[in-house]
Amino acid sequence: MEQKTIRTVAFAFPQSSSHVQPGVYKCDAKKCDCCTTYIRSIKNFTSTTKKKTHQITDMLTCKTSDVIYVIQCARHECKKQYVGKTTSALKSRFSVHKRAIRYKQNTSVAEHFNNNNHCLDDVTIFPIEQISDKKALGEREMFWIRELGTESPGGLNLDVPMEEGKKRKHAGDFAPPNKKQKVYYEAEESMNHCYEMEEEARNIISQVCEKFQNVRYSDMKDREDVEFLNKLIKETSNLKDKNLKNKIYIGVFGKTGAGKSSLINALVNERELLPASTSGACTACFIEVQAHEKATYKAEIDFITKEDWKEELLCLVENCQQNAEDGESENEDSEDEDSEDDEYEMAKAKIKAVYGEIGLRQTYDELQQLAVEIPNTHKKTITSNSASDLSREISGYIRSDTESQQYWPLVKKVTLYVPGSSVLLDRIVLVDLPGAGDANKCRDQMWKEYLGKCSSVWIVNDITRAISDKTAMEIENRTIRNVAGGGECHNITYICTKSDNIDPHHLKRQYNLTDEALGITIPNDKKVKNKCILFRNNKVKELVKKNFNEKVKKKLLGTDVNSTEFFKVFTVSSADFWNNEEKKEHILDRDETELPALKEHIKDLYVSHSQKAVKDYVSKVSGIVSFLHIPKENTSTQTEDLKDKLFSELKQKFETRLQDLAKFFDDVYTEMTNNLDEGVKNAGKQCLINALKVLKPEKTNYSGYHKTLKALCRCSGYYRSRDGKTVDLNYALVLPMYAAMDNSFVSSFRLNQNSRSSIKGAFDLLQNDLITIDKRKHAAVELRLTYIKTELRILIADLETEVIARKKNIYNSITQSVQDTMDPAYKDGAVITGSELVTRIQSRLKEHVKSCKLSMFREAKKRVMDQFKQLKDYVIQTLKKEMDMSMKLALTQFPKDVTFPDVEDELKKMKGICKALELDVFQD
C-alpha cells in the first residue's frame, strides 16, 4: 500500500488529549444512531478474504465526508465486506444503506442483510480513508475493492460498469453489466443519490439548529425584529424534521377477475396477501397496500358510519321487496345477458353477509333491531406475523365468497401494511380499486377522491380480453377521462395479465406462424409455448398502444406536446413469476414475466417525485444557510446604498413579472370563456338527446333497469354497476362543455411538463427571469439574492401544489354544478314507487332537464370561471405578499445587537450538495 501524508480533517470527539491518533472515532452527538449502534472505533482493519491488516492514516468520524468506507457483516460465520465511497458525510451514506435494507432494495448490501437469517443488527460500518480530490474517489474505491478482495462471491461488491472512455487495466477489474443490470443499477443509484443528498442537507440544518441555541436576543427592543428572529428559528427547526414523504398513489383499476390482486401480490413478493377472485366477487371496499417499518403485518379497517349503513340498508331492503313485487314477468322473455338483476343480487348478498340467511326474510324495522358490528371509532386494527395469517383474519372484511363471518358491506377501506418492500419503498401506496360497482354514496365519493389523487393509474385486463372486451374498453375510456382533467395523474400504464394463458396451436394458426418464423430450431412444447407467448405479448402491446396512445396523450398532455413517457404497456404473468421464485417448472423466465420491469417502472415514478421533493428541500436549506451568512458580509454605507437600490429594482422588476403572469391567467381565462360559450350552446341543444342515452339506453328490454335508475337517483346522478359500467347522467349532460374546453384546459394545467401555454411555463419564466446575479456588481449581496431566489422557488413549488388541488375542483365543478341543479329531481326519483316506475322516473328527470337547460349550463360555466378567477387572484396575491416580505428581509439592515452563528462550513457543504443535484441555487 502506498504511503500517504497524514492530514487533519474536521472531526468530533473528546478533546482531552493534545494529540489525537489517526483512527475511527465516535462523534460527539448525543443521539447519533450511526455511532451508537453500527460504527466501529478502530485504528486498523483486516480484509476478511485476504487476511491482510491495514492501518488507518486519517482521523475519521461519521461526520467525515469524501471517504472510502467498509461495511462488514458482524456474524462470526460470515464477515463479508463491502467497499463504498461517498462525497457526503458517512452517516448520510449509511442512512441510505439502512433504508435500502429496510425496504429490501435491489442492492447487494440490502440483499445480503435480508437473506440467510441476517438482519440490520448484523451491520457494522467504518470509514478507512478520506480523499481530498473528489475525482479520485472512484479510483480509490476500485483500489480498495481489489486490495480487500470484496468482489462477489467472496465479498458484497457486485459487477459495476467501467468509467466511460477507460479500459480495464487488471484482469480482476469488473466486467460491465448487461443492459437490464445497467438499468436497475442506474435506477438504484439515482434513488440512493436522492436519499443521500436529503440526509446530508438534513444533517446540515440540524447543525445550524444546534448553533442557533446560543443566539440571544432577549434585549432587542424592536418587536418586528424579535418576531422575525423567532420565525427564522422556528423555520430552521421545522426544516430539520420536515417530512418529504407525501404519498404517491398508484390506482389499480380493472374488472373483477382481471388479476389485480395476483399482480399486487407478485409485486410485493407476498403470495398470499390479497385474495384472488374466485367465483364470488371480492367486494366493493378499497384496499391500500403500503410499507410498514416494523417486521409485523398490519391491517387498518375503516368502517362506514352507522348512519350510512342505516340509509343503505333501507335501499337494500327496498330492492329486495321490489324484486319480489316484480315477480317473474320482467325476466321471462329476456334475451340480453346484461339484464341480470345486479342490484337485487348485490342487495341480497349484503343483507345475508351482515345478518345471515334470516335477514332476507325480515323487514327493515326488524333488521334495525339487530346489532351491527361497527366500532364506535369506525376503525379496527389487526396485526400478524405473516401475510397468509393476516389474509385469513381480514378475509371476512374484504371478501364476499368466504365461509367465515362477513363484514365487507360495512367496510369502507382496508389499509394493509407490509414489512419492507423494494416496490413499496416509503411513499408508494398501491390502491386496489374495487372492480364491482356499488350504490353506496359514501363509497362512490371515495371512488372519485381516489381518481383525483392518483399520480399514476394502472388499467389491468386479462390479455385475452385486452383488445376485444367492450365493457373493459368502456371502463378504460371513462377512467382516462376521470383521472386526466379532474386529477393529478400524469402517467397511465396498461397491464395485460395472465400472459402465460395461451394455446400455441391456435395462435400459430391465427397468424400463420411457423417454428422458423418464431426462431425455433429444435422444437419442444416448452420452447414453442415460450415463443408464442412472447410473440403475442408484442402484438398485444402494439394494438393497445395503437388504440390508446393518442387518446391518453390528448387527455393527459393536450395536443401540443410530444412525449413517450405518459403511456406504457406491460404483459405480465404472475403465475410464472412465482414459479421462478419457487424454483418450479416455468415457461417464461423471471424477466420475461415483466414483473421486474414493472417494479422498475414504480421505482422510476418514485425517483421522479423524490428528486423534485429533495431539490425543493435542499433549496430551502440553502436559502436559510445563505440568509444566516448575510450578517457577516460588508455592512458599509456603500453596501447599504446598494441594498436599498437593489430592493427598489427587484421590487419594480417583480411587479412587472407579476403583471406578465396575471396577463397569462387572463389569456387562459379568455380562451376558456370562449370555449365554454360554445360548449354551453351545444349542451343546451343536445341535453335531451344526451339524457335519453342514459335514461333510455338502446336495449331489447328494461328488465331490472328501474333499480339502476333508482340507484342513479340515490347517488345523485352517478352509479357504477357490478360489472364496472358507469351510468353518469351529470357527465352526459355536460359532455359538450368538456369537449369544448378539454384541450386548452389540460394544456394550461399541465404541471409535469414545461411549455409556454402552461401555468408551469409561466411560473418557470417568472422564476428564471427575476434574479440574475452579476458577481462584479452584486458581490457584496450575492447571498442575499440567493436567499430571495430559494424563497421564490419554494413558494412556486407550494403554489404548484395548490394549483393541482384547485384544478381538480375547477374541472369537476362543471359536473358538480349540474348535479346541484338536478338534485331536486334526483331526490324525487329516489322515492318514486309503484307501477310504471321506469317511465315515471324518466319523465321526472327529463322534465327537470328541459325546464332548467337555459340556466343550468350557464351556471356551470359561471362556477368554473369564478373558481379560475379565484385561483388567479390567490396566486398573484400570495406571490406579491410573500416575495415583498422576503425581499425586504433579505435587503434590510439586521439588528446590530444580535450575533448570528457562524455557518461558513455549512454554506460550503450546501453549495456542494446543490452542485451534485445540478441545482441552480448558487451562482458559479
UniProtKB/TrEMBL annotation:
Ranges where the record places region Disordered: 323-343
Domain GIY-YIG: from-to ranges: 64-158
Pfam family, one: Dynamin_N
Biased composition (Acidic residues): 325-343
Family annotation (InterPro entries): Dynamin_N, GIY-YIG_endonuc, GIY-YIG_endonuc_sf, Nuclear_GTPase_SLIP-GC, P-loop_NTPase
Gene3D superfamilies: P-loop containing nucleotide triphosphate hydrolases (3.40.50.300)
Transmembrane segments: none
Protein name: Nuclear GTPase SLIP-GC-like
UniProt source species: Huso huso (Beluga)
Phylogenetic placement of the source organism: Eukaryota, Metazoa, Chordata, Craniata, Vertebrata
